[in-house]
Amino acid sequence: MERVAFRREPLIALLLGAGGLVAGVLLGSDGVFYQSWLLAFLFWVGVSLGALALLSVGHMAGGSWSALIQRPLEASVSLLPIMALFFLPILFGMNVLYLWTDAAYVASPPPVAAKTAYLNTPFFIVRAGIYFALWLLAAWLFLRGSAKQDREAGESARIGFRLKSQAGLWLVLYVATMTFAGRDWAMSLDPEWWSGIYSVIFMISQAITAMAITILTMVMLANRSARIDELLTEKRLQDLGNFLMAFLMFWAYVSFSQLIIIWSGNVSELAGWYSVRLGPGWLAVGGFLLAFGFLAPFVILFSRWVKRKRIALAGMAFWAIVTMVVNLVYFVVPEFERGGFPITVSDALIWLGIGGVWMFFYLRRLSAHPILPVHDPRLKGAEHHA
């Protein structure tokens, strides 16, 4: 039951997080603060939700790769209760963030007036409660089953089968709940606009960030644990790199599909969303995402050598995180209609604040549990490859 201790790192993360949150609160006005909070919340809750999806896929697939990265995924998933608490400021700032909370605005545009049965404050809160209740239940069942598998060697196969049998249901529920959560929390910032692919882009972005952070974690753990260093073979690294490349390909595909479908439809209520993002300032961001968010990483990750070298793959994972941050800014910030430079100091501070708290609990969770599932039958496959 080997464990990897993190001594100074959690404290540093907590200090950065607390400092970022305090400074963000002091420096941001009400409107900017809530905008910054929503932006940071969407990214960090996405990491935990992406890990929940990957954890479900791993239990379903049953491969040795999934057992190897199970602990980092579980650490991410364990933070969902914290993210539920971080959702509360969004509820307090609803009137600042969402135009549809203004009765006078809702009464004017016909497309928005037709959505009032869905876009209203009580139903918004109820839906958010349902999302988090299901996500927390899934996290609790996965973590409880994993802990029980560590304790009971004789029951490990039966527990593993139970986790595998329920994983498909939780993956379906993740897709269903995130479909509506993406619309509620981000797409409804422009209540006149609609896209059926919008939440899909959010989901694949979450998978990319979760996989990228997991790759960085595994490379870090391999430098601290002889056991992880032995099991994290070139073959395992290539598997993780293939996942990252496939996710980036799908992200580019659905992003481009949304643009083509909406633009070719030539509906004024829908095309306006892209008119802003293809206009001055934001056009360069879109070009950056195309060239350096997809094309360059795709070409680089096509190399087998890159996916088999820890430092090279870790570098690509870090760049994938940068790309997903820029993609989130590209999707959300234009809705705030800010003048001048669109990114504020408050955005950076709140992102650092929530991220620091997230990383503090993430590292604490990794330290508190065995770094590998103790009796998981899937580890035999990893040991064979090692």
Structure description:
The chain has one domain (8-385). It has helices spanning 8-27, 30-61, 64-68, 70-77, 80-86, 88-92, 94-97, 103-107, 110-113, 121-151, 156-185, 198-222, 226-231, 234-265, 268-277, 282-301, 304-308, 310-332, 345-368, 379-385. The protein has 386 residues and is mainly alpha-helical. 78% of the residues lie in helices and 0% in strands. The protein starts with 7 loop residues before the first helix and ends with a helix. Helix 2 (30-61) runs antiparallel to helix 4, helix 2 (30-61) crosses helix 12 and helix 16 (282-301) packs antiparallel against helix 18. The chain is built from 20 helices and no strands. The mean pLDDT is 90.
Number of helices: 20
Alpha-carbon distance between the two ends: 18 Å
Biggest sheet, open or closed, and with what strands and sense?
A: none
Helix content: over 70%
- For the residues shown, what is the average pLDDT? 90
Overall geometric form? globular
Q: Which stretches are poorly predicted, pLDDT < 50 over at least 5 residues?
A: none
Global structural class: mainly alpha
Our count of domains comes out at: 1
Element string (H = helix, E = strand): HHHHHHHHHHHHHHHHHHHH
Radius of gyration: 21 Å
**Which percent band covers the strand fraction?**
under 5%
Query: How many β strands by DSSP?
Result: 0
